[in-house]
Amino acid sequence: MTLTLFLQLLVNGLVVGGLLGLVALGLALIFGVMRIVNFAHGEFITLGAYATWLIAGGLGLSPLIGVPLAFLTGAALGYVVQALLISRMAERPPLDTLMLTYALSVIGIGLFSLAFGGDFRSYANGPSGELRVSGVSIGWRGLTVLCACLVLTGGVLALLRSARTGLALRALAQNRDAAASCGIDTRSAERLAFSLAVGLAAAAGSLVSLIGTTTPSVGHDWVLEGFVVVVVGGLGSIAGALSAAALIGIVQSFCGFLLDDSWAKIITYALLYATLLLRPQGLLGRRIEA
Fold first, then answer.
1. Which residues have a Cβ under 8 Å from the Cβ of 133 and sit 6 or more positions away?
2. Beta bridge partner(s), residue 121
3. What span, in angstroms and rounded, lies between the C-alpha atoms of 46 and 220?
4. Which of 114, 218, 221, 254 is the most buried (most CB within 10 A)?
5. What is the pTM of this model?
6. pLDDT tens for each residue of 65-116
């Protein structure tokens, strides 16, 4: 393998890892703050993908406009879903909330299939061509996706480190009762976390539509790997999720080239199995004593 090919595969892996990082960041945020496994996360990804397809393919506008619009639409919808449905399950067993998000996922796939059918949809609008640096070709679409992922991730990390908002979310992630006793509005903090996570999922879907095709199941495909990333990185660990996303993206890029895409998936889930077997808390997760 030449150095140029190595760098090319590395860049491709970072693009995939950036998207996985956005998906996993939302999942880790929801689980860390609310202790909820959100099975409907994939349908919010699909929402962002179709919203951008409508903007680019239907209206003929730049798909880059779809990224912030998808984020805002997803965040608003996430706020409504959390306020009307998720919050009502706060005192119920975790399995009830799990089944609720699963039901939302099934409903979402059905609605997307009803509205758009099962056709593969794409658009030609947006960045085109490639950038060549030292023999390495980087498509402008892939570079745009990677830069957008870095900006969105950096923005969320800056928010989490902010004085008031970040403190509330971090306190809630550590101990909900203690946070409430300190005067933190736990309901508002949970709605903010869920809204932000869903906004990230929709933005990720918007970026996915830029480099791939959109179908009713596109979000489902990405969220499965997002769950792998979260588990490998450590449940509730944002740093772990981002590290695992980069790792898995690079592994898939190299394995997909050296073997094929099927083996890339197999090796990804083998990595999940090895993590659960050898380090159940994940790469950067904390071990919970019984």
1. none
2. 214
3. 8
4. 218
5. 0.91
6. 999 999 999 999 999 999 999 988 877 888 889 999 999 999 999 999 999 9
